[in-house]
Amino acid sequence: MFFKLENSTIAFGGLVANKNVTAEVEKGQIVGLIGPNGAGKSTMFKSISGFNKIDSGTIRFKDRDITKLGPVEVCRAGIACTFQKAQSFAGMTLEESVLVGAYLRRKRKKDALPFAHEMIRFVGLEGKEQVKIPRLNMFERKKAELAAALATEPEMLLLDELFAGLVPTEVEMMLELVKKVNGELGIALFIVEHVLRVIMSLCEKVYVLEYGEIIASGSPQVISSDERVIKAYLGE
Ligand code: ADP
Ligand code: MG
């Protein structure tokens, strides 16, 4: 078993944002998570990455119980994430923000800095190292976030709406980049995405979340012909 979230339930006051959610990702696999706004997708990713404490359920990664770990420990265990709303790197340069990630496993600057530069090159942002994050355009910021996550050397990466706000040509370029992350680096991907084309062209398996519950899962082909899914997804 590579990754399994099992029977995860989390409530915010009276609102049950995730209810008995179970999802699995295999080593090197690309898995999608779709569902209407407010379905609980980001909540699920924040639970996996240690930012939310789940009320019940378990999270296992590589035969280890990571249910109670905090964000840094989860990252150290090998799960990194990019967020739907990231403001954390506001005052930093691209180089600094990617270095933060690289320092997780590389204690010395002489190890961390070249690796940070390698990840910056990997996402195609070479030459922008000294640019402050807010000065980057949306597409560059998304790639910067990806580079920072990759710098932690994850085995699984959670991408929460990485493609949102990109114009079609950028979506295509990001698709190629994400395929490269999976293909060349062998990193498993768990992807929340509204751009269905992205889900269809990338994912081996897709989970559909509605009102906090998984209502369907399977191949993109199976999912896209499921009546409940069509209703839930287009009912947005
Ligand atoms: P999605 O990412 O699928 O659009 P979210 O996981 O962001 O949905 O939100 C699911 C529900 O949980 C929403 O109703 C949202 O308002 C609520 N929610 C999420 N995080 C919190 C929080 N920290 N406190 C209170 N309510 C929250
Ligand atoms: Mg969300």
From TrEMBL:
Gene Ontology MF annotations: ATP binding
Residue ranges occupied by any ABC transporter domain in the UniProt entry: 3-236
Domain of life of the native organism: Bacteria
Keywords, comma-separated and alphabetical: ATP-binding, Nucleotide-binding, Transport
Alphabetized InterPro entries for the sequence: AAA+_ATPase (IPR003593), ABC_AA/LPS_Transport (IPR051120), ABC_transporter-like_ATP-bd (IPR003439), BCA_ABC_TP_C (IPR032823), P-loop_NTPase (IPR027417)
Protein name as it appears in the record: ABC transporter ATP-binding protein
Lineage: Bacteria, Bacillati, Bacillota, Clostridia, Eubacteriales
